[in-house]
Design goal:
The protein is α+β, with helices and mostly antiparallel strands and 301 residues long. The chain has 3 domains: 2-96, 3-Layer(aba) Sandwich (Rossmann fold), CATH 3.40.50.20; 99-113 and 182-287, D-amino Acid Aminotransferase, Chain A, domain 1, CATH 3.30.470.20; 117-179, Dna Ligase, domain 1 (2-Layer Sandwich). It has helices spanning 13-24, 70-82, 91-98, 100-109, 126-132, 157-169, 227-240, 268-274, 278-289; strands at 2-6, 28-32, 37-40, 47-50, 53-55, 60-63, 86-87, 117-118, 138-142, 151-154, 174-178, 186-193, 196-204, 219-222, 244-252, 255-262. The strands form 4 sheets. A 5-stranded antiparallel β-sheet has the order 14-13-12-15-16, with helices on both faces. The radius of gyration is 20 Å and the shape is globular. The protein starts with a strand and ends in a 12-residue tail after the last helix.
Length: 301
């Protein structure tokens, strides 16, 4: 099988592991910088080109598209889908998951546990917005933020009002969420492949920090999850339409709540914490499911 891996950096742990595992299993792989791809969009003979050559003989594509290049990256992935190449995660599912507001609305519609979340446009509504999510302390998130960047904990009413008004003044879109104090600065990353949670880890924020992202200095450890948490993670991935996802869950007093569904979850933290060959499971999933023209949109919205 010929597998394309869309990644801007071949030396990243996740990219290296996928290449290593796929080649060990007898597959031919090529790492492709998504921003160097260009397309011929025509109804007669659509094509994909990369650094002067045409890409036309791949069986499957693994998208490792960074948040900063979502628009162009998903356009490239769509072109591969048009050519009949099997995508590990489909372009529409990635676009859906990357839109924090849209993804929360879709999860809410299906009854998935979520932190109380507010969204508003006008500064005049800030006071009521804060009241709606239970008051301070609360979390303010940029819709475009990743890896904990653009996430602020406002511990008082005044601080919350100031931060929200500042963001609104900059014309950026934000979410306001209740602060789940009982989580104690930790969350659970559930790694979903297909309809199964194949690995889980607890991420704990460093001292004095509430964001548990490993990129922010958080630590990872093994954790056993409950059947309810397992069901929540697999349902969330299914609603987004993702075959592979990292579902981030908080343990709250009213059960598991989903913070985010990540369409390009990193492998280094989860493999290091669990000792599991997650990269091998991903390639195994492709081996079982890849077929020409098997692209289809899973989920709705």
């Amino acid at each position: 099988m010929r597998i394309a891996i869309l990644s801007r950096n071949p030396s990243l742990y996740s990219t290296r592991r996928l290449v290593e595992v796929a080649r060990a299993r007898g597959h031919e792989t090529k790492v492709i910088d998504v921003l160097r791809c260009y397309m011929n969009i025509t109804s007669l003979a659509p094509s994909m080109h990369y650094k002067g050559e045409e890409l036309n003989d791949f069986d499957a594509v693994i998208p490792r598209i960074g948040a900063s290049v979502t628009f162009y990256g998903t356009a490239v992935l769509r072109q591969f889908e048009m050519l009949g190449v099997y995508p590990l995660n489909e372009s529409v599912a990635i676009t859906r998951a990357r839109d924090k507001l849209r993804s929360l609305q879709l999860l809410s519609r299906k009854g998935i546990g979520l932190p109380i979340t507010g969204f508003a446009h006008a500064p005049d509504d800030v006071e009521d917005l804060i009241k709606m999510v239970g008051g301070a302390p609360l979390v303010i998130k940029l819709l475009e933020g990743t890896q904990g960047i653009g996430v602020v904990l406002a511990e008082t009413q005044k601080a919350a009002e100031s931060v929200i008004e500042a963001f609104m003044g900059l014309k950026v879109n934000i979410l306001v969420q209740e602060y789940i104090k009982e989580a104690n600065g930790s969350d659970i990353r559930c790694f979903v492949i297909g309809d199964k949670v194949v690995a889980t880890m607890k991420r704990q924020a460093k001292e004095g920090e509430f964001r548990s992202n490993l990129h922010r200095g958080g630590s990872a450890s093994l954790i056993r999850i409950t059947p309810e948490e397992r069901s929540t993670a697999t349902r969330a991935a299914r609603i987004m339409g993702l075959n592979v996802a990292g579902v981030d869950i908080l343990r709250s007093n009213h059960g598991p709540v989903v913070m985010e569904v990540n369409s390009s979850p990193g492998l280094e933290g989860i493999e290091g914490a669990t000792g599991k060959d997650v990269a091998g499971m991903i390639v195994g999933f492709i081996e079982k499911n890849a077929a020409i023209g098997k692209t289809r949109t899973r989920g709705q919205g």
